[in-house]
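Key result, reporting period 2: structure in, sequence out.
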């Protein structure tokens, strides 16, 4: 079972590295979901009455936007990302206490090292959702918690449908169904919820730049090769559905919690 199809991790890391410098200025959706996830984590920790400081792994930390928030709360944070470019930006912000450039499906640390694993919109890049969660579970202490967001089936559906009408190709990766995501968590004490988030853009260029600017240049499964010409952009704009607020782009957001009992 794969959470995203037809991709090369090193190319993904390079794409995110190229986007690193401008990532925070354009990653509005990522920041909004991360804030929700952070609030969910705070509620869990209050209910568990845990003592600080906590050892936290920010898995798929990107530029360290949330690593820094966690560190500023007094926790000891390890920032992990596949992209060295993203980690360089995180280091420049002094976002964490430790930095690890590695694949979250193979984390180079001993088992049971962290009280909390926080992972915002990064786990969908993994080969196997269950495999990635198993690795995050391995490095979490007993009594700890893993909180994550990811994307579900039908994310970016408007963009996919517009491309399909033009050339018969989706140009968008396939994400797991809600049923498959829930099934991937079944062996652990878990809580998974789903939320639809729709962003609006004034034009096709700004919409596509919102994807390119966050490093998501590999949302291209099944695409045809070729340059994005002005004519091609105009065709896409004509095919794209329009809403009163602008061009819609919908994400099917998943919020997951795994309790390491």
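The corresponding designed sequence is given below.
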């Amino acid at each position: 079972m794969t959470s995203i199809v037809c991709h090369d991790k090193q190319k993904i890391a390079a794409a995110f590295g190229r986007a690193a410098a401008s990532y925070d200025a354009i990653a509005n959706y990522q920041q909004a979901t991360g804030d929700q996830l952070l609030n969910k984590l705070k509620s869990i920790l209050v209910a568990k009455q845990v003592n600080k400081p906590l050892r936290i792994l920010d898995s798929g930390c990107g530029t360290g936007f949330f690593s820094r928030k966690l560190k500023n709360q007094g926790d000891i944070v390890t920032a992990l990302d596949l992209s060295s470019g993203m980690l360089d930006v995180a280091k420049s912000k002094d976002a964490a206490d430790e930095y690890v450039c590695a694949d979250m499906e193979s984390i180079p640390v001993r088992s049971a090292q962290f009280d909390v694993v926080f992972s915002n919109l990064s786990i969908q890049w993994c080969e196997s959702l269950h495999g990635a969660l198993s690795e995050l579970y391995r490095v979490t202490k007993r009594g700890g918690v893993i909180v994550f967001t990811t994307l579900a089936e039908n994310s970016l559906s408007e963009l996919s449908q517009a491309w399909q009408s033009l050339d018969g190709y989706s140009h968008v990766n396939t994400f797991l169904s809600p049923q498959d995501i829930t099934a991937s968590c079944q062996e652990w004490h878990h809580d998974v919820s789903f939320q639809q988030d729709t962003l609006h853009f004034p034009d096709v260029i700004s919409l596509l730049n919102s994807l390119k600017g966050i490093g998501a240049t590999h949302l291209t499964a099944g695409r045809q090769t070729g340059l994005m010409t002005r004519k091609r952009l105009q065709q896409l704009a004509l095919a794209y559905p329009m809403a009163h607020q602008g061009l819609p782009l919908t994400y099917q957001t998943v919020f997951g919690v795994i309790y390491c009992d």
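The CA atoms of residues 18 and 24 lie 13 Å apart. The chain has a mean pLDDT of 88. This case is discussed further under Risks and Mitigation.
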